[in-house]
Structures are given as structure tokens and as C-alpha cells.
Design brief:
CATH class of the largest domain: Mainly Alpha
Shape: globular
Radius of gyration: 22 Å
Structural class: mainly alpha
Number of strands: 2
Largest sheet: 2 strands, antiparallel
CATH topology of the largest domain: Na+/H+ antiporter like fold
Order of helices and strands: HHHHHHHHHHHHHHHHHHHEE
Strand content: under 5%
Number of helices: 19
Length: about 475
């Protein structure tokens, strides 16, 4: 009897080698492009997103740079026997496909998701609850406004984009509209937090309301994304309701049950030891990953789980200092560029012809108007001045890496085409690049920087995400 033929593709030992090679290439390109972006006055994340795009089919695909005979060491003929996705097998001469074969992309994508959990965990630990007291009305007004306005605008914009160029034929119109709404509603609130910290405005009403509202917006945005995913998969109303109930129960359990338990079994040992022991550090990471897992199973994304895990941690100021000293560089310098590059590997700007320009322009303009103007109006209704509202709208308009998460989710759900996913990457680049210059142009009177108004409490690790340094961790 003839033994069955081995499955096509790379053997496991080759996959590990290509994962390591891919990480090396990503790290080198991310450092180079990130440094170039900073020299041009832009956040590092802009350069890192561009790095991912350059490593993908936009530059290294068959339509631009390619090779007819790939080096034998890359085993392209073996690795490319498995297609990237059904019906879209890459050509063997694609440099990007050979350097990042399909079998290696899965592990690289998983590393990117781990990066998001740790990144959002650190952001959650930073949250200063003292600045939120008495500002509930403003926070809710801004949060609801900058979600409701973009989603409502999506129902006006979606019909103009509902064609084979941007919507997968046969997919749900409702799911398509909600996916667009989620992309329009994204706010990169970690970027907002860094800018406000750098400018010494976190103690202001605008700063406190903006950061807290952006956190709420992120949860609501991922609930919108979960509903869109459910509609795309033909889930009934009962299953959608379960997502909202699950999210509510998850948040209640984390703040009412897990938080007191952490104060007792993590906070007390941590304070008694006076340092972050290996056992305490392991417990912190277990909570972060468990929270990310539960949030993912509920359908509200690992990002929400990571952030909530950080928000319920005890001994927040000291814990942030010690945990950031161990995680911040590894997360920001190594893991986050992996996620950004992974998004770029799936982005092909050469697929955009002249017939796509009008649709992409409508999408970009709608996103900027919805968040900038929507944020300004919501902030004014919430009690801020028009000048403060304008600045808050500028910050809310920044998409950072989160819009890449939503765009990939929409693409994988079979709702949007790769061309609209490219539009999501463009939105990330344009809105993130415009945030810094616009903020400097319209920012309100600068408050006293925290580093000057608060006595030093020992060395503080330099935490830099998106190229904006945090000078001092918040108390809480």
C-alpha cells in the first residue's frame, strides 16, 4: 500500500526558521522607518505602519519589485503551495510572499495579539481615577457623542461604498455599514494619553474627560464590531444580546470581584515585599492574559481585556513603575511593530486604481469629520469650551493602530474588500500624522507639567508608545 503523500507547504522546522527571519526583518525595518518618522516630526507609529506596508505586496509584490528565480534557501516553491486565503494564491516570484510565507504568518500574527494585550494593560494601569471624580456627565456625553455620530454617519456613507470595489458581494449590508461605523468611530486613546501627559494637561478637565471618554469609546466601538461580526455570520438577536450581557457581566466581575481579590492577594504581598517579585509579576501577567482571553471569547476583543486588567490592578502608581520597567520596552520596541507589520503584510496599495479614489476619499473625509467635529460638539455639550472641544476632537480623530485591528477584523469576516482595508491603513496614517501638528496649532494654555509640579518619587522608567514619551506615571 502506497503511503499518503505529505501535506504541501513547509515542514515545521522550516516554519520556525521563517518566523525568526520574519521577526528580524520586521524589527530592522521598524527601527529604521520609526526613526525616520521621528526626524520628520511624526510619531514613531507612523513609520512602523509604513514599514509593514513596505514589507508587504505594495513594494515587494509581483507588481513592483519581484524576482523570477528566488534563492533556493527560501524554499518558495514549497511554502507557496498553500494560499494566503481561499482563491488568492500568491505568485512564487513575490518577494514578500517568500520572506513571509503563509505558514509563518500565523505565529507572527499571534505575537501581534499578545503585544496588544500587554500594551493595553499598561495603559489601563496608568489610568488615574482621581482625575475622573465629578466628571461623569462630561465623560459619558463625549463618549456617546464620538461613537453615535460616526456610526450615524456610516449609514449615510455606506450606500456610496456598497459596491464590489469595497463590499464583498453577497455580504450583509447591515454588517458592512456597522464595520464602516466601527472604523469611523475608532480613537487611539493611548496616543491621546501620551500627548496630554507630554503637554502637562492631564490635570485639566479636558485631559481627564478625554482620556476616560476614549476608554469608554474603545469598549463601545468593539461592541459595535462584535455586532457587525454577528450580523456577518447570520447570528440572531439573542446571540447579539448575549454579547452585551457577557460584556456587562465581565466588567462587573472585574471591578466588583477581581479588583478586591487582587488588592488582597497581589497588592498586600507586593507592598509587604517592597518590590515586584517573580511571583507577583507572574500573577499580574496571568490576570492580563486571562482577561484578554475572556474578552476575546465574549467577542469584544483582547484589547478591552488587557485594558480592564490593568484598570483593576492595586497599588497602581508603584505597580506601573515596576511593571513598565519590565514590559514597556519589550512591548513598544519589539512586539507592537510585529502587529503593525503584520497588518502591512496584508495591505496592497497597488490594488487601488483610479476608480477607487473617490470612494476612499469619501471614507477618509467622513472619518475625519465624524471624529473631529463630533468630538468638538460632544465636548461642548459636556461642559468644555469650544477651544477645548476643538482640541479634544483633534485627539479623538487620531486612529493609531486600533483602526488596523478593526480593518483586519472586517476583512477576515468577509465583509469588506482588501481595497477598503487599504483605506483603513490610509486612515491610520493620515489621522495619526495630522494629530501632532493640529494639536500644537490649537492647544489651550499649557498647564504646569507634572514633572515640575509633583515631587520626584524615585527613578521612573521611560515609557514610549507611538513615539510619545510618558514623563511620569499617574497616581491612583
Amino acid at each position: 500500500m502506497t503511503p499518503p503523500a505529505p501535506p504541501p507547504g513547509l515542514t515545521p522546522d522550516f516554519v520556525l526558521g521563517f518566523v525568526l527571519l520574519g521577526l528580524v526583518i520586521i524589527f530592522v525595518m521598524a527601527r529604521l522607518m520609526g526613526a525616520l518618522a521621528q526626524k520628520l516630526g511624526q510619531p514613531r507609529v507612523v513609520g512602523e505602519i509604513v514599514a509593514g506596508v513596505l514589507l508587504g505586496p505594495t513594494l515587494l509584490g509581483t507588481k513592483t519589485l519581484a524576482w523570477n528565480n528566488s534563492p533556493e534557501i527560501l524554499h518558495c516553491n514549497d511554502s507557496l503551495e498553500i494560499p494566503f486565503r481561499a482563491g488568492a494564491e500568491p505568485a512564487p516570484e513575490s518577494i514578500s510572499a517568500c520572506l513571509f510565507p503563509p505558514q509563518a504568518r500565523g505565529p507572527i500574527g499571534i505575537l501581534g495579539q499578545i503585544a496588544l494585550i500587554l500594551f493595553m494593560f499598561l495603559v489601563g494601569v496608568e489610568l488615574d481615577y482621581r482625575l475622573l471624580r465629578g466628571k461623569g456627565k462630561g465623560i459619558l456625553t463625549v463618549a456617546i457623542g464620538v461613537i453615535a455620530i460616526p456610526v450615524a454617519l456610516a449609514f449615510l456613507v455606506a450606500p456610496a461604498l456598497a459596491n464590489s470595489k469595497f463590499q464583498v458581494p453577497g455580504s450583509s449590508d447591515t454588517a458592512f455599514t456597522l464595520m464602516i461605523g466601527a472604523m469611523l468611530a475608532v480613537t487611539a486613546f493611548p496616543v491621546m494619553a501620551r500627548i496630554l501627559q507630554e503637554k502637562g494637561l492631564t490635570q485639566s478637565d479636558m485631559g481627564a474627560i478625554g482620556v476616560a471618554a476614549a476608554a469608554v469609546v474603545t469598549v463601545l466601538m468593539f461592541l459595535t464590531l462584535a455586532v457587525a461580526n454577528g450580523v456577518a455570520k447570520d447570528k440572531d438577536a439573542g446571540e447579539h444580546t448575549l454579547v452585551f450581557i457577557g460584556a456587562a457581566l465581565f466588567l462587573a466581575a472585574m471591578f466588583l470581584v477581581v479588583k478586591p481579590l487582587l488588592a488582597r492577594f497581589v497588592g498586600r504581598p507586593y507592598e509587604a515585599a517592597g518590590q515586584l517579585t517573580q511571583g507577583t509579576f507572574a500573577a499580574v501577567l496571568i490576570v492580563a492574559f486571562a482577561s484578554g482571553y475572556i474578552a476575546d471569547r465574549i467577542g469584544i476583543n483582547v484589547i478591552v481585556g488587557g485594558f480592564v486588567a490593568g484598570a483593576v490592578m492595586p497599588a497602581r502608581e508603584r505597580l506601573f513603575r515596576d511593571v513598565a520597567a519590565r514590559l514597556s520596552d519589550f512591548t513598544a520596541v519589539i512586539l507592537l511593530p510585529v502587529f503593525l507589520a503584520f497588518s502591512g503584510l496584508n495591505t496592497d496599495f497597488t490594488s487601488l486604481g483610479s476608480s477607487f479614489i473617490v470612494g476612499i476619499a469619501i471614507f477618509l473625509v467622513a472619518g475625519i469629520v465624524a471624529k473631529w467635529a463630533g468630538g468638538a460638539v460632544a465636548a461642548r455639550v459636556g461642559g468644555l469650551s469650544w477651544k477645548e472641544g476643538n482640541v479634544l476632537g483633534i485627539l479623538m480623530n487620531c486612529r493609531g493602530l486600533l483602526v488596523l485591528v478593526v480593518a483586519l477584523a472586517a476583512l477576515n469576516a468577509g465583509v469588506i474588500t482588501p481595497q477598503l482595508q487599504v483605506g483603513g491603513v490610509l486612515m491610520a496614517l493620515v489621522t495619526t500624522a495630522m494629530t501632532g501638528p493640529l494639536f500644537d496649532r490649537f492647544q489651550p494654555a499649557q498647564a504646569t507639567p507634572l514633572s515640575e509640579s509633583t515631587p520626584a518619587e524615585g527613578p521612573v522608567p521611560r515609557v514610549e508608545v507611538h513615539g510619545v514619551p510618558l514623563k511620569r506615571p499617574p497616581a491612583g
